[in-house]
Amino acid sequence: MTIRFVTSNAGKVREAREYLTDDVEQIQYDYTEIQSDDLADIAVAGAKEAFEETGGEDPVLVDDAGLFVEALGGFPGPYSAYVEDTVGVERVWNLAEMEDNRRARFRCVVAYYDGETAETFDGAVPGRIVAPRGDGGFGYDPIFEHEGATMAEMSTERKNAISHRGRALAKFADWLAEN
Questions:
Q1: Could you say which of 36, 87, 109, 135 is the most buried, measured as most Cβ atoms within 10 Å of its Cβ?
Q2: Domains of the chain: which residue ranges?
Q3: For residues 47 and 27, what is the distance between their CA atoms, to the nearest angstrom?
């Protein structure tokens, strides 16, 4: 069975192939991202739309992810990409540095849809918000520290080994093997 991963990010597809024994095909389709405070709602809506718009033959995967800063009430959460583009990572750090509690989580929800069944699988990586460091990664990686290193300081292999997306994909792979 081929699973179509709806993303423009080839790195996400490589990561998915590490967890899934089935063929993973990258599909670039710009689905409508609904406005919701719930990553699962966003991912499922995207998966259903992408399934229909790409022919409705093979199951699809869509993921949605975000950075959830505890002291900021979970902000930016599901709005992380928009906040990164409009406010910027540095300003998110500036907001967090004013707080005593800098705990945060990277969260990801992977949604699977095959035309009948919609299932979601979540993964999270705990950490804390710190002053920007490191040259690797993208997005919020320079300000998110996990076990003493920011994601931007980690190699791709180390980052993928602990990633929120990887944790969600591992749960999906287990479910897929049983079903």
A1: 109
A2: 2-178
A3: 11
Q: Is CATH 3.10.50.40 correct for 2-178? A: no
Whether the CB-CB separation of 174 and 21 falls below 8 Å is answered with: no
Q: Is 9 helix (H, G, I), strand (E, B) or coil?
A: coil
Of the residues 63, 64, 85, 135, only one is catalytic, namely 64
Numbered residues of the known binding site: 7-12, 33, 64-65, 138-141, 159, 164-165
* pLDDT at res. 22: 64
- pLDDT, averaged in runs of 10, over the chain (179 residues): 90 89 86 93 97 90 96 95 94 90 96 96 97 91 96 91 94 93
Question: What CA–CA distance (Å, rounded) separates 179 from 96?
Answer: 42
Q: What is the total residue count of the chain?
A: 179
96, 69 Cβ separation under 8 angstroms? yes
**Whether residue 122 lies in the annotated active site:** no
Tokens of 153: 């300081």
Binding site for Mg(2+): what residues are annotated? 33, 64
Q: Which of 172, 57, 48 is nearest to 120 (CA)?
A: 172
